[in-house]
Design a protein that fits this description.
The chain has 305 residues and is α+β, with helices and mostly antiparallel strands. It has helices spanning 16-22, 25-28, 37-45, 65-72, 89-100, 116-122, 131-136, 148-159, 194-202, 226-229, 288-291, 293-300; strands at residues 47-48, 53-56, 59-61, 84-85, 109-110, 113-114, 240-243, 246-249, 286-287. It is globular. Residues 23-121, 141-302 form the Aminotransferase-like plant mobile domain.
């Protein structure tokens, strides 16, 4: 989800140091990036789950760890995002008490999910007065961040600039902020139809797709924080990408042109088996670190392509 119906809540200023320490500071600064549903649908039609890439007439491409770092400003090197999920209200209650010191009521929950309205009011019920409470309020072992479609849209706009709305300030980092509130200056763009995107992608020519959008001529190197730049050697790792129940493949061998290399014949597609289709619908009381232990081991032993 990338549409906001209310202005995003500002975090308490005293947690800024913890946001920086955990690597969430830059993503916390991203403003409202309005969704363009037709473009998302056109991209989804081009996605091939068996190769884990988008298929265009000019070649295969994908959102890489480099894109995650540059577009959202998130760290890309660390422990896998995994662990147990608990579906019962009692488990949610206990976890919230542990993390925040307060717990939702049953009316604040829907099934195994806590309503967003409860979280919006949470900051008014928490007093952050010492380092322990501050660190608890900025724990990094959360599952979701508001931004997957923001990542996809921004990736498409920088790789396919002829399909993008006019960006804003090019001096902002992370790059997603270039399209913050884009609809104010590009009002008609939101009404571009799926058929238009399909036709433009069908007619895509070599030179219209920007394979390396983060060169010196495209982004000032001084804008990239050292903490982000230090992980660049890992951006070309051929590894599983892990988020609790979800496993995706970082198919670098199929998108070598995105790293300035010559694209050879790729290896056979990586078969993720049942792990590729896991969803968190229904009761899911499971420790995914154990369920996906083989993928976790591959990430832990990650190498560079």
């Amino acid at each position: 989800m990338c549409e906001h119906y209310k202005p995003p809540d500002r975090y308490n200023e005293i947690v800024e140091s913890q946001l920086r320490e955990t690597g969430f500071y830059y993503v916390s600064q991203i403003g409202v990036v309005q969704c363009q549903s037709a473009m998302v649908n056109a991209l989804v039609e081009r996605w091939r789950p068996e190769t884990h890439t988008f298929h265009f007439s000019v070649g295969e491409c994908a959102v890489t760890l480099e894109d995650v770092a540059m577009i959202l400003g998130l760290p890309t090197n660390g422990l896998p995002v995994t662990g147990p999920t608990m579906s019962s209200f009692e488990a949610l209650e206990a976890e919230c008490l542990h993390q925040f010191g307060v717990a939702p009521r049953k009316t604040d929950c829907r099934g195994s999910f806590i309503k967003l309205t409860w979280f919006r009011g949470l900051k008014d019920r928490i007093v952050l007065n010492d380092d322990v409470h501050i660190q608890m309020a900025t724990r990094v072992d959360c599952k979701k961040i508001d931004g997957p479609l923001t990542l996809l849209l921004t990736w498409a706009w920088i790789q396919l600039p002829f399909l993008a709305p006019i960006p804003g300030n090019s001096r902002l980092f992370s790059i997603a902020n270039r399209w913050r509130d884009w609809e104010r200056e590009n009002y008609g763009y939101r009404y571009t139809l799926l058929e238009n995107y399909r036709r433009l992608l069908d007619d895509l020519q070599e030179g219209q797709f920007v394979w390396q959008p983060y060169g010196i001529g495209d982004i000032d190197p001084d804008l990239i924080p050292l903490a982000i730049h230090h992980n660049l050697v890992l951006w070309s790792a051929r590894v599983p990408l892990i988020s609790f129940e979800c496993i995706e493949w970082h198919a670098i061998d199929r998108v070598m042109r995105q790293f300035g290399m010559r694209q050879g014949v790729p290896t056979l597609e990586q078969d993720l088996g049942a792990s590729h289709g896991e969803v968190l619908t229904g009761p899911k009381n499971e420790d995914w670190a154990n369920t996906h232990s083989s993928w976790v081991m591959q990430w832990t032993n990650r190498g560079i392509w």
